[in-house]
Amino acid sequence: MSSTTTAGRPLAAPPLRPSPPASGRMSGTLRLFRVSGIDVEAHWSWTFIVALLVWSLADAVFPEANPGLSDGTYALMGTAAALLLFVSLALHELGHAVQARREGMPIEGITLWLLGGVARFRGSFPSAGAELRIAIAGPLVSLALGVVLLAAALALPLPAAVDGVLLWLGTTNLVLLAFNMIPALPLDGGRVLRAALWGRGGDFGAATRTAVSVATAFGRVLVAGGIVLVFLTGTLGGLWFAVIGWFLLNAAAGEGLVALGEDVHAGPRVADVTIHDPVAVPAGTSIERFLDEIVVDHRHVVYPVTADGGPAGLVSFRDALSVGRGERGGRRVEEIMVPLARVLVLDADRPLTEAVGELLAAPLRRALVSADGQLAGLLSPTDALRALEILRRA
Ligand SMILES: [Zn+2]
Question: Parallel, antiparallel, or unpaired: how do β-strands 310-316 and 338-339 relate?
Answer without folding.
Answer: antiparallel
